[in-house]
């Protein structure tokens, strides 16, 4: 007679060792969970990424924060701008006066004196040249000695040297006068005054001292990411990058970029050939063509912090976990090499 479930009441020992329903449900859940985890590990794709932190920078050196320096030594007499003011190229920033208020007048008087010396030297040299011609004629007629003719030539050379010295002195005076006359410091480019060295207004300044800092308002921005040296060997220009800017809300899943929110796209522009003092390598990231533009410069300013993930190869979740646990480098595949196939054995030429 076949065994039916209601017959188990006649076997109390068998009924006692039968597992409860809750235990069977938990066992089924564990088995299904193990199968699901195994399927995820082997079949779900994962995008490997190389993370890095950095900041927003300007690509053009002229778009970076610049120091406006004093052109001549002296004292700041007047400021034309304040912190935060917008300036155009050539707008005055500060006026510097020399410690000696009569310096320009004395330089002008010195220049007039040098000009008079040049005129006198030119006239004297012209007369000396006439004497040379007269002495040459008298020497040809036998009415003058050769010594007199040579003495007149020496006088011409002497006056020529004095004229050259006077002209060089005039050049030096003009250079000094021009430098002292350019006492108004002007903005080298369009931008905004970031800070002013207020101490310069009460103390003496030398040529080259910083008076103010000017920052451009519409720079061409890039991102500087600092990447670990273990990953830098497999990173190449053109690799896509996902960026999260400071102050901009974002949710990032590095392995599944399609579900990330608030992220922006970029691509690797260049990689520094040598490491920084911290041992990290600087990677420059530019905007990705054809993708949404980065936030406006009013929201993402120069110097703002950025988190970035350089996207590499696509592998399975299980392989990525195994790589992370063993601290292995990123997977690297070169499509060009794969298309070419294995490289042929090198041919060794033997010299006869």
From TrEMBL:
Gene3D superfamilies (UniProt xref): 2.40.30.170, 2.40.50.100, Helix hairpin bin (1.10.287.470)
Record field: transmembrane: 25-47
Domain spans labelled CusB-like barrel-sandwich hybrid: 65-214
Alphabetical keyword list: Membrane, Transmembrane, Transmembrane helix
Pfam families: BSH_CusB
Region feature (Disordered): 333-352
PANTHER family assigned: MEMBRANE FUSION PROTEIN (MFP) FAMILY PROTEIN, MEMBRANE FUSION SUBUNIT OF EMRAB-TOLC MULTIDRUG EFFLUX PUMP
Protein name, as recorded: RND transporter
Organism: Sphingomonas spermidinifaciens
